[in-house]
Amino acid sequence: MIKKLFLAALLVAQVLAATPKDTIVIGIENETARINPLFDEDHDSALDFVFSGLTRFSPDMKIEPDLAKSWKVSQDGLVWVFDLRDDVLWHDGQKFSAQDVKFTIEQALNEKLNAPARASFEEVKSVEVLSPYKLQITLKSPFPPLLDALSIGVLPRHLLEGKDLNTDAYNQHPIGTGPFKFAKWQKGSYISFVANTHFYRGSPKAPKVILKIVPDYNVRTYEIKNGSLDVALVEPNLVKSLENDKRIKIMDMKSADYRALMFNFHNELLKSLAVRQAINYAINRELIAHKILHGYGFAANNPIQASWANDKDAQSYPYNPKKAQEILRKDGWKLKGGVFYKNGKPLEFDIYAFNSDPLRVTLANILQSELGKIGIKAHAIAKNHGAFEIDKVDSFIIGWGSPLDPDVQTYRVFSTKMDASTNENGWNYNHYSDKAVDEALLKARTTDKIDQRKFWYAKFIHALYENPPFAFLVYLRYPLAYRSDITGIQPTILGHHGARFTYDIEKWSKR
Questions:
Q1: Which 8-state DSSP code applies to residue 2?
Q2: Which single residue of 164, 370, 386, 488 could bond 507 by disulfide (Cβ 3.0 to 4.6 Å)?
Q3: Which of 426, 511, 461, 457 is CA-nearest to residue 115?
Q4: What is the tens place of the pLDDT at every residue in 463-478?
Q5: CA neighbor of 250 nearest in space, from 412, 479, 429
């Protein structure tokens, strides 16, 4: 069945080969349900096209003004005043103002709406419009990630006030202030956009852009080869098939995106510290980075390793299978027939992965093999999205990571408050709870002193080492393949699933 679908996709690709001269066609892995920044912060490229925020990021992840021209912050870090641009139009021609920003933040905090973006604005006490283009945000506590949070796309108050943003048709026909206007959405196939010629930073160089949904990496690579895609992220093991083609260029993109084995703390076996430590020692991360990622990545030891907040002196779990077995024996496990047993039960659990992600499936299979060598019976199981619940299975090949402030994907992933079973916007899918982690994350997000933030993030990393929620595996780099007639693409640091690779889309053009 899969083979038939693959062949059918190739036939479609051949029919569509050679993209229009006035259009850049970009292949993407995932299709969003709603084009709305309150609901999809993670890897929706469409957000880069339609929306803009008060701030944006330079290629090296420095904060820059965008809809905000400048800002000032009080000495105690609690009051922020933003001067906004007065030359910005919404795609429908209406003027952008401070009222739109106030509306967006208040919607993010709206308890009835319960948007995922809420976690980024929890420290906001009030938002006050001082004039049409001046805004004051008052915080409950200092919150350094605020400028990162304010890169979220601003929503149009004049179109959405009084409406239910969860269900409104706006989510399927968005209007923003970004470089491209939404044109058409053919579900399961593509989303098309046209240039916003009134864009305040200057008209985009490409008249039209299409996001084509191509989940399969093999199909994406084939379509780059035959010309039916102009730009796409490809798998490291498929790069060789493109390297000698003079019509194609490869850009090596850094990322803060990692993969890890997530332990479910509702599983009594994996709740055991000895078992989690043994698993961590049993994994040869360097080998995985070299053999599986073909050099497009490196060994992972913690979730903020690619951040300024990383503790370079942090402890890690080196590859030591003998030590793994020693820990288990001390914990009362005995090796029988190549498998560890305790109280008559084998050391056995499942490792789930999404079958649409070849790297995750490969990692699950490698872990099954590596753990089997030391006496742990793991079963790699690959199923599609929706076939299982992440927070219910024994373990899962998870991926996180953001090049933004370290708070962005630490607090929501590891804080007890963000347990997915009690908080539907929480990303703590494994029900992890550690007082030292909770304290460190809270202190790190509510102090504006950089040395104090580093101190608390070092504490956080140490607490994760002492009580590991994951077995961190590898950080990824992403090969970006593009046709040689595409210009203007600049390297940057990508997030989860390669998020941000279209961050500078208005500069891309086709010769």
A1: H
A2: 488
A3: 426
A4: 999 999 999 999 999 9
A5: 479
